[in-house]
Design a protein that fits this description.
It is a single chain. It contains four helices and no strands. The chain has about 130 residues and is mainly α. The protein has one domain: Four Helix Bundle (Hemerythrin (Met), subunit A) (Up-down Bundle), CATH 1.20.120. α1 packs antiparallel against α2 and α2 packs across α3. It is elongated, with a radius of gyration of 16 Å. It binds protoporphyrin IX containing FE. The site of protoporphyrin IX containing FE has 23 residues, from α1, α2, α3 and α4.
């Protein structure tokens, strides 16, 4: 159950992030603000959902190497917190800080995708 939700939500969140990034790149600031806010709300919502499911006893029972799981966990704890700072800097118009955070955010998101894919492939027995 948990795995299916995560599998469904990750592509949607990634799509939103690429879209928000594309709009920011094109200087479409109002549209960027909207899509980024939707991304933030969906991300926090999905974290809440996963947390509730874990509280109700759902687990992933992965068999990926420990260092990959630990790296992944550290990254996914940082991501929602970083988004709070992104929202604050974006809405205050602190452009330099916002863009620096955007670089870190995209890098972390990429690392989360790579380590997440490795955990998923190990879980399915492909690696
Ligand atoms: C969390 C929600 C976010 C909100 C509410 C938000 C809001 C904003 C706002 C209002 C601006 C215009 C700032 C100004 O120049 O006055 C902006 C710019 C920008 N945002 Fe975001 N943002 C968010 C997340 C993100 C994310 C996740 C990224 C990474 C892809 C990002 C990348 C950028 C970039 C690169 C700019 C600069 C665009 C430019 O002026 O060249 N933002 N954002």
């Amino acid at each position: 159950m948990l795995l299916y939700i995560i599998e469904a939500v990750i592509p949607v969140l990634t799509f939103q992030l690429v879209w928000a990034g594309k709009l920011a790149w094109r200087q479409e600031k109002e549209r960027h603000k909207k899509v980024a806010a939707i991304h933030a709300a969906s991300l926090w919502g999905s974290y809440l959902l996963v947390w509730i499911l874990i509280m109700f006893g759902q687990t992933l029972q992965g068999n990926a190497p420990r260092w990959i799981v630990d790296t992944h966990l550290v990254i996914i704890y940082i991501i929602p917190a970083l988004l709070i700072f992104m929202m604050a800097t974006g809405l205050r118009g602190a452009r330099k800080a916002h863009m620096a955070l955007a670089g870190v955010y995209v890098l972390l998101w990429g690392a989360a995708l790579v380590t997440g894919a490795m955990i998923f492939l190990a879980h399915r027995g492909y690696i």
